[in-house]
Recover the amino acids of this structure.
């Protein structure tokens, strides 16, 4: 499958203020103000997508939704990389109904508040989640390392697990949603 390769890291921060201060030190440009996102991962009854190391995610955002396919992880030492294809969706509830009618079911739901910035072609987001606040840096390897270093982080601080993995590792049960 051809498509864009997403390369990223997460950086755990003590809270949203610390994350925003790190981004402000860069002089990054705000591209998307803080907004709520509700994410739903889907799979068939046999767990075929998960078994293949792939993900199908339906994200609800204020202006509609985004359907994302993520391929298996690629070899990228110290970074998280995988092929990604996505498209905007006018009505995520209708798409969810269609996907359920063809046998895909929700398997995990997670929520976050997100704001996005641009710094030298790298996307930096502040994600406030039920398990903590993270900076996520997405772009090319050199730019990711440069952005992380400029914010005071090094490779030992890089988190390459997904929010699902982090939630489960923290002992989470059920879905990762705000109370």
């Amino acid at each position: 499958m051809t498509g864009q390769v997403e390369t990223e890291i997460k950086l755990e921060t003590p809270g949203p203020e610390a994350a925003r201060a790190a981004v402000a030190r860069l002089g990054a440009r705000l591209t998307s103000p803080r907004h709520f996102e509700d994410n739903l991962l889907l799979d068939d009854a046999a767990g075929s997508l998960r078994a293949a190391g792939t993900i199908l995610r339906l994200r609800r955002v204020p202006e509609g939704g985004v359907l994302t396919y993520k391929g298996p992880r690629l070899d990228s030492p110290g970074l998280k990389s995988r092929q990604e294809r996505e498209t905007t969706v006018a009505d995520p509830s209708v798409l969810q109904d269609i996907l359920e009618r063809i046998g895909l079911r929700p398997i995990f739901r997670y929520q976050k508040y997100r704001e996005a910035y641009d710094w030298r072609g790298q996307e930096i987001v502040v994600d406030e989640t039920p398990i903590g606040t993270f900076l996520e840096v997405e772009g090319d390897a050199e730019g990711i390392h440069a952005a992380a270093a400029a914010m005071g982080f090094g490779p030992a601080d890089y988190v390459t697990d997904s929010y699902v993995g982090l939630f489960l590792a923290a002992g989470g049960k059920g879905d990762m949603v705000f109370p």
